[in-house]
Design a protein that fits this description.
four-stranded mixed sheet; 6 strands; 2 helices; single chain
Length: 134
């Protein structure tokens, strides 16, 4: 299968949303885990010893290969700031965003296990913006 030269983004999903009624974001932020993905790595990392970068995937900066605690904190803080999309799955936002060091990162929900949401992350293209991001 041939992959497209660039990702086609649905611009409507790059918009900060509001949580469903009754959701306590502070409590929810304690139930998220950053697990990473070998599909966005080109060297061994906490996400897996065998990197398997996809042809269409952005590659994480090398220094992040050992920074799971930092990435976990970014995910929690970004969620608490309200930097998440309006799409929700199994009680968690599908997308969470973070600006850091001049880059925009997106965390994507990949699994919910026993009420804990697992996310992977990757950088977005420089021309992509998240409307309403704090």
């Amino acid at each position: 299968m041939k992959f497209p030269a660039h990702r086609r983004e649905n611009p409507k999903r790059l918009v900060v949303g509001v949580p469903p009624t009754g959701v306590d974001i502070a409590a929810l932020s304690r139930l998220v885990r950053y697990i990473g993905s070998v599909y966005h790595k080109d060297l061994p990392s906490f996400a897996g010893k065998q990197p398997r970068p996809r042809p269409d995937a952005s590659i994480c900066p090398a220094k992040m290969a050992t920074q799971q605690n930092v990435l976990q904190r970014w995910l929690e803080e970004s969620l608490q700031r309200g930097n998440f999309g309006g799409l929700w799955e199994n009680g968690f936002p599908r997308y969470v965003w973070r600006h850091e060091a001049g880059m925009l990162f997106e965390a994507r929900l990949v699994n919910v296990v026993s009420g804990v949401a697992q996310y992977k992350g990757y950088s977005l293209d420089a021309d992509q913006l998240v409307e309403g991001m704090k």
